[in-house]
Structures are given as structure tokens and as C-alpha cells.
Specification:
Elements (H helix, E strand, L loop, with lengths): L2 H20 L6 E6 L4 E6 L3 E6 L8 E13 L2 E12 L6 H5 L4 E6 L2 E6 L23 E7 L1 H8 L4 E5 L6 E4 L3 H14 L3
Antiparallel strand pairs: 1-2, 2-4, 3-4, 3-10, 4-5, 5-8, 6-7, 6-9, 9-10
Helix pairs in contact: 3-4
């Protein structure tokens, strides 16, 4: 085989390899610079979904929560949060009703309670100017809770993960896809942020 033909084959193989790498699977996390506040935000692309049946209200009625970890980096000062997207399959309810019971929550990690207090209902509660996760539906309420990276790791290693609201009428939510999906989402986030 002559040199020019060999060079062409090597160049084509390199181009094919580059294209394969570029079109590989999407990263399991998302990172962006919030230009308004100057923080770098890292989040999971695939939040954990929890649900609670509300069959007494209507057939197939469910209340759902999307839970996602967040890292906020302000010039080397790292802070961690959990985001909740709170919604239901019924007609949209007012914001106060959606948020009822979520001022503090308890995450049950293999039965062990992990109490979290609300940081706020808007991205400004975590130092961001834009939402980190897209709302699952337009009527969803957002909530942000400060956590430690060790608490996220604790949840990522759980065989069972549930969430309980507080207030006058506590409600418990269970995993939609089971613990394997939750572990994969949380572990991918931890690997991306270096833990």
C-alpha cells in the first residue's frame, strides 16, 4: 500500500473516531455559568421522580415531585442544594396550595430521617438568576433545600428513598422508577462534581 493511500485511510479512521466520540451519549450532568450572578451551576440532567397516588380525588390522580441535586460554585465556595419540582396530574392549583407542607421536608433514606429546611421558592435562594431545572409542567412549584455533599451521597447509596412533607397533613412520596434509577442519577451527579 502506498504512503498517500495509507495516510488517507488513517485520516478517515481518525475522522470516524472523532465523529463517534462527538456523537456519544449525552453527559449525565449539566453545567452553566449564570452570567447575572457569576456562579457556576452543575445539576443532573435526569431528576429523580417521586409520586403519591391521590385516587380518592380522581382516578389516576397523582401528586409528583421531581428531585434534583445542584452544586453552586461561587469562586471556589461550593454549596449544595436539592431542587423539588412540585406538581400534580389534576387541574393546576394555586401556588400556596402546591407549596403547602413543603416548608420543611423529611427524606427517608433507608428509613433514616433526613430533615431539610426550605431555602426558598426561587433560584435567587441559591444565588442563581435563572431556574436550574426545567419545570415538569408550567404549573409546578419550585423549592430549594440546602444539603451537604455527604447527604447527597447518603441518598445515592440508599436501597429505599422516600420523601415526607410536614405541616398539618403530612404526605409520603415514593420513588417512581425504583431505587436503581435514583442511585444512578445521584451517583452520576456526584462523579461529575468530583465526589
Amino acid at each position: 500500500m502506498d504512503t498517500s493511500r495509507r495516510s488517507l485511510i488513517i485520516a478517515l479512521a481518525g475522522a470516524a473516531l472523532s465523529a463517534a466520540c462527538a456523537s456519544g451519549p449525552a453527559r449525565p450532568t449539566r453545567e452553566f455559568l449564570d452570567t447575572d450572578t457569576g456562579v457556576t451551576v452543575t445539576s443532573s440532567r435526569e431528576p429523580v421522580v417521586l409520586y403519591r397516588d391521590s385516587a380518592a380525588t380522581a382516578a389516576y390522580a397523582r401528586k409528583l415531585l421531581h428531585l434534583g441535586p445542584i452544586e453552586v460554585n461561587r469562586s471556589g465556595d461550593y454549596r449544595y442544594f436539592l431542587w423539588l419540582g412540585i406538581w400534580n396530574t389534576l387541574q393546576p392549583s394555586d401556588a400556596a396550595e402546591q407549596r403547602d407542607g413543603f416548608e420543611s421536608i423529611v427524606i427517608l433514606v433507608d428509613g433514616e430521617p433526613l430533615m431539610l429546611e426550605l431555602a426558598g421558592w426561587t433560584p435567587s435562594a441559591i444565588g442563581a438568576s435563572v431556574p436550574v431545572y426545567p419545570k415538569p409542567v408550567a404549573s409546578a412549584a419550585d423549592a430549594y433545600y440546602p444539603v451537604t455533599v455527604d447527604q447527597i451521597r447518603f441518598m445515592a447509596e440508599a436501597a429505599d428513598l422516600r420523601l415526607r412533607t410536614t405541616g398539618a397533613a403530612p404526605a409520603e412520596y415514593e420513588l417512581w422508577d425504583g431505587p436503581r434509577q435514583a442511585r444512578r442519577s445521584l451517583r452520576s451527579f456526584l462523579e461529575a462534581v468530583g465526589y
